[in-house]
Amino acid sequence: MPTWKEKLSITMEPQLVEEIDAFESQIALRRSGKLDEKIFAETRLRRGVYGQRYDNGHRNDGVRTQELNFSSDLTKGPDTLWDAPGMQRIKIPFGGVTPDQMDTLADLAEEYSDSVLHVTTRQDFQLHYVHIDDTPNLMRRLAAVGITTREACGNSVRNVTACPLAGVCHGEVFDVTPYARATAKFLLGHPDAQGFGRKFKIAFSGCRERACGLVNMHDMGGIAVTRTENGMEKRGFELYVGGGLGAVPHDAKLFEPFLPEEELLPTAQAVARVFARLGEKKNRAAARIKFLVAKLGIEEFRRLVLEERKTMVPDPRWTGYLPEVAEFKENPLKEPVPLNGQRPEGFEKWYSTNVYRQKQAGYAVATITLPLGDLTSSQMRQLADLARSFTGDNVRTTVEQNIVLRWVSEADLPELYRELVRMGLGEPGAGTIVDVTACPGTDTCKLGIASSRGLAAEIRTRLAAKLFTLDEAVKNLHIKISGCFNSCGQHHISDLGFYGTSRTIGNRKVPHFQVVLGGKWEDNAGAYGLAIGTVPSKSIPEVIERITGRYVRDRNGNETFQEFIKRIGKQELRGMLENLMQVPAYEKDRSFYSDWGDPREFTIGDLGMGECAGEVVSAAQFDLADAERLVFEGQLHLDSGDYAQADALAYRAMIQAALSLVKTQFQSVRNDSDTVVSEFRARFYDTNILGDRYAGNKFAQYLFRRHDSPPHEHTLDRARRIVEEAQLFIEAVYACHDSLTERGSAPISIKAVGKP
């Protein structure tokens, strides 16, 4: 058998080999101080190498149960990169992975990481606790089996995702797999895709109705469509641009109802060129393409892209892959045989949730449920062997952090299930309320505020015990959790979404989660939810019990969860949760003051502290509570269609929150918006007191933008956006208040504005 070095010389393009060699040299240059840290940071990110949070805590959230002790962490500054482990992201276009690649991934996780592989919500793999000196060889070994980490992060085109059922789904228009593959290959390292201000994500879906590729939440996405021309069926894409989650989600806008397949790659290139030329570069908070599309409007953006398309030199790669599309097909390992014979104990439950019967008779897709998206190196190797026995190369990862085996002959399903149970991978519940999605949160992410994985593990444990006794309407809901406002856990598009935050109760930190309702997973992420209130982390399981219980009791016929939420109204739902928002005194119940899976007293110190000053007076808490009331009332007006009033209340909420900070230094401030914004800018933004703690400076810009540029027209998108922005701004002010209280510093005198 050839070594990985021999495979590398055969399979990998010389240019990519040279790039890995160059990265290794850059590591040496940075170590010796001969390469600027900012340049090196973007370089390593474009190779998928991340800094990682680590606090010497005990991981007990599913697969990671061992004590992991390292000497230092990456949160202390760039120089500790050499002493502490980080994270390596590995791109898997459209989620397609082969058994040989799975073996290599297992080996790398065992040799360089903690023997755990994590599947992400973008169909990637991540290895945590990887030392930067090991990354070049890790990359070479991946390259030897046809995998790259190039542009897995950074201001680049990230992994191109696609529906894991593409090619076998009953409702698809056509198989989008070869188009996703071609797009990923074409844009990888493309010179026109190197000058972005932020990342760029692409997805493909074979139909509109199901979640599939979640096109609505992507920078660019294509839904398969056909039309008849001259009596012939022609393939194309309903192309969308400008979507995205993040702190404030944007719906993607329809760019073209039918983009012919031969125009897919040149149009993607033209979009990249316009984004690189006109997209924001200095302010990362407004650098995604969704902000450019919102600023220009979809009509003007389309005009610019079409004009750009006319100027481009023809590239044979634009259509060079199309002959392969017509011939593309996956090869089943075995003949199709219907399900028959004896079935092991537990099989029927697993079959009911984890098996999808393909449109090809006699074949099925089996989903391997991965709690929290994790599996061990040993499980990965065994899974690779199972694939060799039952499916061949037909394996894919999913955006719900699972793995699917495609083209399983139905008669093999019982034996496959027996083997999965033996491996510890036979849990049912894929795609149900038990299959909770969570980002890394405080485990490894430097932005994490509350333990998304810890909460997800707790919810999963509670619900798994009663999955098959749940009402059918509840059984198929989706729960998604993010450790902070950034929607890495995709909380905006779930039935029940949560994102981490914190509150200070009696001078102690308490982990909390914002409750987000109204999101829609189906219809390619058809709707975004909004936060209705902040609840202590330890009360979140009860939140789920109450809301789902009310849904079962009070729904009208076949009313969907989204319809139910809209009919009941957020005000009544918030009322149901109000007593759960209370935190008992520390002396009465200390459990509220620690996070799930971590017995230590909760702290968010790992986030880093901005330089804050001033003394928080007790009235500030009342001001912030009033600001939260205003933004919630704005949500109610948003739901009722009164977009102007929703905007006005959200703006008032931001002014009220800003005022709460200003009053910590200037009690006699005049309460008008111009004065409040001016004082807030001078005292907390310009001085960097607000800082980057909980993205304070980023969210302050939401206030400044709304104050300086009131909307000329009131639309659903605009109103929803400012309501989201107001909530995030309030969270940033809460965080700065906490810092002020902790520091107890004297107020800073600012003579140029008002009185100190």
Structural features, described:
The protein is α+β, with helices and mostly antiparallel strands and 756 residues long. It has 5 domains: 4-97 and 108-143, no CATH class; 168-327, Sulfite Reductase Hemoprotein, domain 1 (2-Layer Sandwich), CATH 3.30.413; 347-423, 2-Layer Sandwich (Alpha-Beta Plaits); 432-603, Sulfite Reductase Hemoprotein, domain 1, CATH 3.30.413; 609-756, Up-down Bundle (Four Helix Bundle (Hemerythrin (Met), subunit A)). Helix content is 39%, strand content 14%. It contains 25 helices and 20 strands. Strands 1-2-5-4-13 form a 5-stranded antiparallel β-sheet. Strands 3-14-15-12-11 form a 5-stranded antiparallel β-sheet. A 5-stranded mixed β-sheet has the order 6-7-8-9-10. The chain is globular, with a radius of gyration of 26 Å. The termini are far apart.
Through-space gap between termini: 75 Å
The number of strands is: 20
**Shape field:** globular
Tally of helical runs: 25
Radius of gyration: 26 Å
Write the CATH homologous superfamily of the largest domain: Sulfite Reductase Hemoprotein, domain 1
In terms of DSSP E residues, the strand content is: 5-15%
| Gross CATH architecture of the largest domain | 2-Layer Sandwich
In short, what is this structure?
Helices cover 39% and strands 14% of the residues. It folds into 5 domains: 4-97 and 108-143, no CATH class; 168-327, Sulfite Reductase Hemoprotein, domain 1 (2-Layer Sandwich); 347-423, 2-Layer Sandwich (Alpha-Beta Plaits); 432-603, Sulfite Reductase Hemoprotein, domain 1, CATH 3.30.413; 609-756, Four Helix Bundle (Hemerythrin (Met), subunit A), CATH 1.20.120. The protein starts with a helix and ends in a 13-residue tail after the last helix.
